[in-house]
Design brief:
The structure is a single chain. The chain is of the alpha/beta class. Helices cover 30% and strands 25% of the residues. The strands form 3 sheets. A 7-stranded mixed β-sheet has the order 10-9-8-11-12-13-14, sandwiched between helices. Strands 1-4-5-6-7 form a 5-stranded parallel β-sheet, sandwiched between helices. A two-stranded antiparallel ribbon has the order 2-3. Strand 12, helix 8 (284-289) and strand 13 (295-299) form a beta-alpha-beta unit. The longest helix is centred in the N-terminal third of the chain and has 17 residues, at 92-108.
Length: 339
């Protein structure tokens, strides 16, 4: 025995030699729930805060003189269950860095658990190599988020389901479909057809159509270059029906407008569009305003720049995200929200 070392009583020594097991209440060890947000979509964070009846925690997210992002957490988070609400929308790189730096600050402040709540996941369309010498940017994003300190991710309607597999931490993939379904059922639209604007969205559209008791229509689309699409075939019957085009996002609006024009030519009575993320780049708002679409339904996953456009209806997903956060905090099932 080393000289000067403390000698433990024999019973204590035997006890300390036993392997330690986590207490049964390990999922409840976090001191309290803390909500944080950057500058990407503060109104949504405030709605989530209102739903949960938990005030947004203090954090300063600013800029140094040279444009670098500065972050300061203004309260004790040691051992707390922290949620950083930040979509990686326009300006994408700025908002992404805010998210990463906030999580790094929380990790270094000894937060008990950090969950990145990303209503809109940027770079999601770069989910595979479509040609030589191009990146898989969504995998890089997953790596950055994990390394920055996230223990878990909550996101909404990923562009491609396989992105879940890019993360080496748990990810809860939420769907805005229940929000759209409630709204459309309230409109009592009659004979409905749900339209998938491409083959990749068929599974999403089929599930949506089933819940609306609607038929399914698929668009055979080709994309000769980014942000440009051509409609080749409409697979299914749209004649004398009210059509709902379902997609995860609207960017420039070109695809949506072309699909609406084509199905109107084939006899659709009315065309609605339900898109979760209203990116609305470039001339998208003007295109939608002048199109054959009667109404385009979006969510507030990102701020919508479409003031004064009567055709655009914005629904909130704050309750959906808030309930997912509440269930996650208490260790309850999130998948039950979509049964």
């Amino acid at each position: 025995m080393r000289r000067g070392a403390a000698r433990l009583p024999e019973a204590t020594a035997r006890k300390s030699a036993q392997p330690r097991t986590a207490p049964a209440s390990v999922g409840r060890l976090y001191r309290s729930m803390k909500l944080f947000t950057g500058n990407a979509n503060r109104p949504l964070a405030e709605r989530i805060s209102y739903y949960l009846q938990v005030s947004l925690s203090g954090v300063q997210v600013g800029r140094f003189a040279d444009g670098e992002i500065s972050v300061r957490i203004e309260e004790n988070v040691r051992g707390c269950d922290c949620y950083v609400i930040q979509p990686t929308c326009r300006p994408v790189n700025e908002n992404t860095m805010e998210l990463l730096i906030m999580m790094d600050a929380l990790r270094r402040a000894s937060a008990g658990r950090i969950t990145a709540v990303i209503p809109y996941f940027g770079y999601a369309r770069a989910d595979r190599k479509t040609e030589p010498r191009v990146p898989i940017s969504s995998k890089l994003m997953a790596n950055l988020i994990t390394v920055a300190g996230a223990n878990r991710v909550i996101t909404v309607d990923l562009h491609a389901g396989q992105i879940q597999g890019f993360f080496d931490i748990p990810l809860d993939h939420l769907f805005a479909a229940p929000v759209f379904l409630d709204y459309l059922r309230g409109k009592r639209l009659g004979d409905l057809a749900v339209v998938s604007p491409d083959v990749g969205g068929v599974e999403r559209a089929r599930a949506f159509a089933k819940r609306l008791n609607a038929s399914l229509v698929i668009i055979d689309k080709r994309r000769p270059r980014p942000n440009e699409a051509s409609v080749y075939n409409v697979i299914g019957d749209v004649g004398s029906k009210t059509c709902v085009i379902l997609d995860d996002m609207i960017d420039t609006g070109g695809t949506l407008v072309k699909v609406a024009t084509e199905i109107r030519k084939q006899g659709a009575v009315q065309v609605f569009a339900a898109c979760v993320h209203g990116v609305l780049s470039g001339p998208a708002v003007d295109l939608v305003a002048k199109s054959d679409i009667s109404e385009i339904i979006l969510t507030d996953s990102i701020p919508i720049r479409a003031e004064g456009i009567a055709k655009i209806k914005i629904l909130s997903i704050a309750a959906l995200l808030g309930e997912a956060i509440r269930r996650n905090h208490h260790g309850e099932s999130i998948s039950e929200l979509f049964i």
